[in-house]
Amino acid sequence: MGINIRQLSYSIGAEVTGLDLKQKQSDDTIAQIRQAWIDYLVLCFPNQDLGPQEQINFCSRFGVLDDHRSRPHWNRPDFPEVNIVANKPVVYGGKTLQVLIADKWHTDMSFSVRSATASFLCGKTLPPIGGDTMFANMYAAYDALSDRMKVFLENLEGVHDVSLAPDFHRYTPELQAERKRNHPLVVHRVIRLHPESGKKGIFAGGFLRNFLGFSEKESRPIIDFLNAHATSYEYVYRHKWSANDLVMWDNRCTMHYAVQDYDRTQLRSLQRCTLFAPVSGRFYDPEKDA
């Protein structure tokens, strides 16, 4: 079988068919997938009924996988490279995993100095209606800015805060404190150059608290503008999940949002792997960065 690529929307997203991801793919096929990922930012592989080890085998062809040691409450005890994204507590190997609901536009792990490179999400248990995920093209959002806004943003740095996670309020005080210890405030450039495509994109999202040298009150209108601008309809692809879809996306140039348009009494559970990323930010120093 050969690889087939079909564009899903004008701005972002493509479907990849003709592959059985349970099988080991050739180096040439992985190179083709990687190039499509760089070109389209989000790829969907339909009808891939992957178990956790099979997903690990495929995803690890693109780099070293995160073992999620800083996020132990969501990963399977038997496969620590696999996070479970579920709207209800689920149990694996006697371990009850925390609820994870990402109903805020964000980039995975932007609250870390190693903001995620790639994420891979496989739909396992899905509600019959709704539960979509939306993805935004941050290149296109940057390109549409005025020249003067680009100049203004070029040298800005932003402080990203794990406590702004959409489900942070659902955690116990003990888990909140643990999350803050594991993920102290970090700083990333607001405009980042993608190391593979060479394109510039906006790096904002729901974890962005303020800009260095600006108060939170001063920063908020600009952050709100950037997030609203970047998620305009023309820059967004909305993925309607089918069981066993595997979706991979480039966190370096996208944001995503889990739409809560489904019956919340029904289980929505997906298994996720992420690439262990190189250092792309730095820890916030309150004395130097004040």
Q: Label the overall shape.
A: globular
- The low-confidence runs, each spanning 5 or more residues with pLDDT under 50, are none
Biggest sheet, open or closed, and with what strands and sense?
7 strands, mixed
Subunit arrangement of the protein? single chain
Q: How many independent structural domains?
A: 1
- Radius of gyration, whole Å: 18 Å
Determine the CATH topology: Double-stranded beta-helix
The total count of strands amounts to 18
Q: How would you describe what is shown here?
A:
The structure is a single chain. A hairpin with a 6-residue loop joins β1 (4-7) and β2. The strands form 5 sheets. This protein has a 7-stranded mixed beta sheet with strand order 1-2-3-15-7-17-4, covered by helices on one side. It has a 4-stranded antiparallel beta sheet with strand order 13-9-10-18. Strands 14-8-16 form a 3-stranded antiparallel beta sheet. It has a single domain (4-280), classed as 4-Layer Sandwich (Double-stranded beta-helix), CATH 3.60.130.10. The chain is globular and about 50 Å long. It has helices at 27-40, 52-59, 138-143, 147-154, 173-182, 216-230, and strands at residues 4-7, 14-17, 42-45, 83-86, 90-92, 95-97, 118-125, 133-137, 157-160, 186-189, 191-193, 200-202, 208-211, 236-239, 246-250, 254-258, 269-274, 282-283. It is of the alpha+beta class and 290 residues long. It is built from 6 helices and 18 strands. The model has no long low-confidence stretch (mean pLDDT 95).
